[in-house]
Structures are given as structure tokens and as C-alpha cells.
């Protein structure tokens, strides 16, 4: 019996010694966190074989490739026990960073669909429709990060201020255009000209109905025009507390024309705008409705933003503009009607001499002349025969001599 007891105690002790190291080893083993789901790129399920990676602190800690339908299974394994506890895991689909992140949890299994946007597709952009209007505009965007929230802002780049008649008899009207030039603002005033001296013009605290002190002195108006650059941002003047006022040359206490610089608020949207899976969004934005001019509308989602230009036509018609320049000269008109017959002119000069006349008729034949002198007498017949006989004799002699000469040549 004692022997059996000793064997039992030895067996229990051996099992205890075997289990203690196993428990200690289990506590020191690095923890895994397994993920599975569907991967998408630019809103579409990725093809089989696409790489999916997990990163902690920017270092790749797990990889997988997708199967049919974009499915992936990926395990993140700690390098040492507790190394990833509480840290954020980020993911990549191909080379694009996914929008989704999660905290590392040891021995957890998480279903996480991944969506990423290809950054090489191009810079984000927005489109306004219409680009010219009275403040309500459709805004659409493309190539933003899917799942992001869009913020729409508006900033004036150029604002037109109508100038209306002041409190005097000059009846002067016109416009002032304020344009952002970096941290400064260019102010261009154009009004109906006033005869006489130059006009003082200023930016006052306003509105025109209760003008306050001068904030900025502008270049005096000459022949209806003034251009000045003031050291203020355009945004600082668009708060509703300023006005542009021109003074009577004869009495500076009187206003010839004045205009309130409008308030430009921020854009408003119908609700929160979320970027779709393909990186696009669309909504209706309400822009400022006061202050005709040009505005820059910017949509921002995360670290991406895009801008477009909008021109506000204004809710109501402004005052008539200054007279335009003279047009070009018109084309020549049709030929006029024939005038009345003139009076008889002076007598002309004498003509030149005429050509010579033709030859006259031949005269009558003259009388016959006197008889001619008689010719010399001719030789008689005997003398003529003698001459002929002499010629014949000479010819015969010549022939005879020729024949003799030829016979001698033959004999020889």
C-alpha cells in the first residue's frame, strides 16, 4: 500500500512540474489579431491576387492576397508580447492607403471591409453648376478619399459695390470694385464725372445712412476715376461695417455718392456631405447673396481640397454704369441722288487747224515733140559676109591643129 501511495505522489508531482512551465510560456507568447473582409479600390471590388497589408507605426506587420470577390484574411502578429497593445493598425490595398483603421486587440478576430482611393488617378476637383448665379449652386466633387466628410467654404476675390446718389444736387452714381491682392485690397472707383476740382473719396465706417469716421483715404477722383491699394485684406472689409463715400468738391461735408460694402458670410449646405466609395460627392450649396463679384469656393475632405470660381450676379440690378466709349465709325452710306443741271459754261477755245486736202486732177496732154535725128548708116552686105567667112576660117584652123596634136600623142 505504501508503495502504491509513493507512485501516486510521484505522478502528481511530475504533472505539476510539466504544467507550470506551459502556463508561464502561454503568458509570454506574442498575441495575434486576425482580420477578414472585402477589399475595394476606387469603389470597385479588387481582383483576386491583390495585395493587402497591415501596418503598425508605419511598419508592415501582416500581408495577404485577395481571393475571388475581393475577400481577404490577414493576421497581425506581435513581435513580442504586448508590443502592439493599444496601438492603431492601418491598412493598404495595393499601394493605396485604406480609409479604415482599428486598435490592435490580442487574440481577436475582426470583420473589417477595406476601401481605398488610388491617389495616382489625379488631383481632386469640384464643379459648380451654374458658375454664375444668385447664390444657390450645385457642387460636385471627384477623386476625394471615400468616406470622408466634406466642408464647403467661400472667400471673396472681387466684390462690386454700387454707389448711389448722395445728399446733394450733383446726382452722381457709379461703382467701386474691391479686389484681393494678397494681404492688401485694390479699390477702383468709377463714377459719373463732376466738372471742376478733384473729389475726395474715402472708406468710412458705415453704413452710408450713418457714416462714421474715415478708415482709409483713397486717391482723389479725377475725371470720374480713382484707383488705390489699401493695406487691408478684402475679408476684413466684408464685415458689413464699412462704406465708400465721395465728397462734394465745393463742400466736403456733403456726399455726392456712397455705397455700403456688403457682408460676405460662409457657404451653407443642405446637410453633411460624405464622399462616396468612388471618391465623388454631390450636394447643393448656398453662397452669399449680397455683394456682386467673384468668389472662390473650396471643398475640403481630410487632407484633400479643391477650389472653383463662382461669380455672384447679385439679387437686384445695380445703378446704371458710366457711359461706354464711342463706337467705331460706320460704313459709307449709299450714293446720293443726281443734282440739278448746271448753267451753261463759258465759250470754249478755238479748235486746231484741219488736215491738208487731197491732190488735184491731172492736167491735159502736151503737144507732140519735134522729129528725132537720123541714125548712122549701116554696113553693106558684102562687108558682113566677109566677116562671117573670116570667123569660119579661124574655127577650122583651130580644129585642124587640135587633131594633129592628138595623132602625135597616139604615135608616141
Describe the protein.
With 412 residues, this protein is of the alpha+beta class. Among the domains are: 26-119, Immunoglobulin-like (Sandwich); 125-312, Immunoglobulin-like (Sandwich), CATH 2.60.40. 15% of the residues lie in helices and 41% in strands. It has 3 helices and 25 strands. The strands form 4 sheets. Strands 11, 13, 14, 15, 16, 17, 18, 19, 20, 22, 24 and 25 form a 12-stranded mixed beta sheet that branches. A hairpin with a 2-residue loop joins strand 6 and strand 7 (96-103). The chain is flat and about 170 Å long. Mean pLDDT is 77; it is low at 16-26, 315-324 and 374-384.
Q: Helix and strand string, N-terminal first? A: HEEEEEEEEEEEEEEEEEEHEEEEEEEH
CATH architecture of the domain at 125-312: Sandwich
Beta-strand level of the residues, as a percent range?
A: 35-45%
Tell me about the largest β-sheet: 12 strands, mixed
* Helix proportion: 10-25%
Class of secondary structure makeup:
alpha+beta
What would the CATH topology of the domain at 125-312 be? Immunoglobulin-like
Radius of gyration: 61 Å
Summarize the structure.
It is built from 3 helices and 25 strands.
Based on the model shown, name its key terms:
single chain, 412 residues, alpha+beta, Immunoglobulin-like, 12-stranded mixed β-sheet, 5-stranded mixed β-sheet, flat
Q: Secondary-structure map with pairings?
A:
Elements: H1 2-28, E1 32-41, E2 44-45, E3 51-56, E4 59-65, E5 71-77, E6 88-93, E7 96-103, E8 108-111, E9 114-116, E10 125-129, E11 132-133, E12 136-142, E13 149-165, E14 174-181, E15 184-191, E16 199-205, E17 214-221, E18 225-230, H2 234-237, E19 239-247, E20 255-263, E21 268-269, E22 273-274, E23 281-286, E24 293-301, E25 304-312, H3 381-411
Parallel strand pairs: 1-8, 1-9, 11-25
Antiparallel strand pairs: 1-2, 1-5, 3-4, 3-6, 6-7, 10-12, 12-23, 13-14, 13-20, 13-22, 13-24, 14-15, 15-18, 16-17, 16-19, 19-20, 21-23, 24-25
Amino acid at each position: 500500500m505504501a508503495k502504491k501511495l509513493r507512485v501516486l505522489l510521484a505522478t502528481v508531482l511530475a504533472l505539476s512540474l510539466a504544467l507550470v512551465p506551459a502556463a508561464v510560456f502561454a503568458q509570454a507568447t506574442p498575441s495575434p489579431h486576425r482580420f477578414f473582409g472585402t477589399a475595394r479600390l476606387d469603389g470597385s471590388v479588387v481582383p483576386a491576387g491583390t495585395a493587402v497589408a497591415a501596418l503598425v507605426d508605419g511598419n508592415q506587420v501582416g500581408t495577404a492576397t485577395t481571393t475571388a470577390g475581393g475577400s481577404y484574411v490577414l493576421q497581425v502578429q506581435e513581435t513580442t508580447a504586448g508590443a502592439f497593445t493599444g496601438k492603431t493598425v492601418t491598412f493598404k490595398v495595393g499601394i493605396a492607403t485604406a480609409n479604415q483603421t482599428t486598435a490592435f486587440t490580442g487574440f481577436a478576430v475582426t470583420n473589417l471591409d477595406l476601401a481605398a482611393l488610388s491617389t495616382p488617378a489625379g488631383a481632386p476637383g469640384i464643379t459648380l453648376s451654374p458658375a454664375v448665379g444668385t447664390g444657390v449652386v450645385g457642387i460636385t466633387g471627384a477623386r476625394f478619399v471615400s468616406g470622408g466628410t466634406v466642408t464647403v467654404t467661400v472667400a471673396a476675390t472681387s466684390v462690386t459695390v454700387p454707389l448711389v446718389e448722395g445728399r446733394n444736387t450733383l446726382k452722381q452714381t457709379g461703382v467701386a470694385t474691391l479686389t484681393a491682392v494678397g494681404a492688401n485690397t485694390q479699390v477702383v472707383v468709377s463714377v459719373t464725372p463732376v466738372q471742376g476740382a478733384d473729389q475726395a473719396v474715402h472708406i468710412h465706417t458705415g453704413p452710408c445712412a450713418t457714416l462714421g469716421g474715415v478708415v482709409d483715404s483713397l486717391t482723389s477722383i479725377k475725371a470720374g476715376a480713382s484707383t488705390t491699394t489699401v493695406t487691408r485684406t478684402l475679408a476684413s472689409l466684408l464685415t458689413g461695417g464699412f462704406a465708400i463715400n465721395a465728397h462734394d468738391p465745393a463742400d466736403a461735408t456733403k456726399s455726392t455718392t456712397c455705397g455700403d460694402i456688403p457682408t460676405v458670410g460662409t457657404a451653407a449646405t443642405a446637410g453633411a456631405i460624405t464622399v462616396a466609395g468612388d471618391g465623388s460627392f454631390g450636394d447643393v450649396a448656398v453662397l452669399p447673396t449680397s455683394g456682386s463679384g467673384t468668389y472662390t469656393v473650396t471643398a475640403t475632405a481630410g487632407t484633400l481640397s479643391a477650389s472653383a470660381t463662382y461669380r455672384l450676379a447679385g439679387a437686384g440690378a445695380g445703378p446704371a454704369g458710366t457711359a461706354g466709349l464711342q463706337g467705331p465709325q460706320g460704313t459709307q452710306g449709299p450714293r446720293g441722288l443726281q443734282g440739278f443741271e448746271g448753267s451753261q459754261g463759258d465759250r470754249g477755245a478755238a479748235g486746231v487747224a484741219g488736215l491738208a486736202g487731197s491732190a488735184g486732177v491731172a492736167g491735159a496732154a502736151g503737144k507732140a515733140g519735134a522729129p528725132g535725128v537720123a541714125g548712122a548708116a549701116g554696113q553693106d552686105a558684102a562687108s558682113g559676109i566677109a566677116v562671117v567667112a573670116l570667123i569660119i576660117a579661124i574655127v577650122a584652123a583651130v580644129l585642124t591643129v587640135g587633131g594633129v596634136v592628138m595623132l602625135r600623142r597616139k604615135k608616141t
